[in-house]
Write a structure and sequence with these properties.
- It is a single chain.
- Helix 1 links the parallel strand 1 (6-9) and strand 2.
- The longest helix is centred in the N-terminal third of the chain and has 17 residues, at 36-52.
- The protein is α/β, with parallel strands linked by helices.
- Helix content is 44%, strand content 16%.
- The chain has one domain (6-234): TIM Barrel (Alpha-Beta Barrel).
- The chain has an eight-stranded parallel β-barrel, surrounded by six helices.
- The radius of gyration is 17 Å and the shape is globular.
Length: 236
């Protein structure tokens, strides 16, 4: 039985490096995220291979285009056997509804469809720089309402906003949260971060974690420790 909230980000430029890490992991304890960097190396075949190994695969390509293009991209992505895929909520309601129509909820093999709100590498000053005067909490709340109205399964947001979304929508919108770091880890390019336990206490459903795990000498030990800690949080 596949358990755990952790989604390991396979942010590698070489397929061989990604597969070397995957050999050290277990599909019973974590899911995997394939983003643009690795997808452009391994393509659909790699995604299908990971799914065939028993892993839940989050295809993180963040589609953002005209509705027809996004619709067709979602159809092709769903054929790879992925568990989750995402599109940018900033593409607007028409684009989101086209994505939802492309992947019917009532089909048993349909992946979960997520709407990306505001990237965790951004803060209020970044929004202001591109002409968005509203603050991040407002924008995340607004874009989450688009996801709900379009029938999406969840959103991608920082753990800081997960609590408000959980309050507004409960389990009807899952919260997938990048920007998760262990105590003492570098934030790197991330600006809105939390630790795993902080994130879950604040309403996160799933935690996307990269370097804290992928650069560890014993990645499975890190995952097991986090899963144990999170189980204690869930049982509180």
């Amino acid at each position: 039985m596949k358990t755990g909230r952790i989604i390991v980000a396979l942010d590698f430029s070489e397929v061989s490096n990604a597969l070397s890490l995957v050999k050290q992991l277990s599909p019973d304890s974590c899911a995997l995220k394939v983003g643009k960097e690795l997808f452009l190396c391994g393509g659909p075949r790699l995604v299908e291979d990971l799914a065939n190994k028993g892993y839940r695969v989050f295809l993180d390509l963040k589609f953002h285009d005209i509705p027809n293009t996004v619709s067709k991209a979602c159809i092709n992505a769903s054929r790879m056997g992925v568990w989750m895929l995402n599109v940018h909520a900033l593409g607007g309601l028409e684009m989101l509804k086209a994505a939802r129509d492309a992947i019917p909820k009532d089909r048993p093999d349909s992946p979960l469809l997520l709407a990306v709100t505001i990237l965790t590498s951004m803060d209020d000053s970044d929004l202001e720089e591109i002409g968005i005067e509203k603050k991040i909490p407002y924008m995340v709340k607004k874009l989450s309402s688009f996801a709900k109205a379009s029938g999406f399964d969840g959103v991608v947001c920082s753990a800081r906003e997960a609590g408000q979304i959980a309050h507004d929508y409960g389990n009807s919108l899952i919260r997938v949260t990048p920007g998760i770091r262990l105590d003492g880890d570098s934030k790197d390019e991330q600006k809105r971060v939390m630790t795993p336990t902080e994130a879950v206490r604040n309403g996160a459903s799933y935690l996307v974690m990269g370097r804290s795990i992928t650069q560890s000498r014993n990645p499975m030990a890190i995952i097991d420790k986090i899963n144990t800690d999170l189980l204690a949080v869930d049982n509180c």
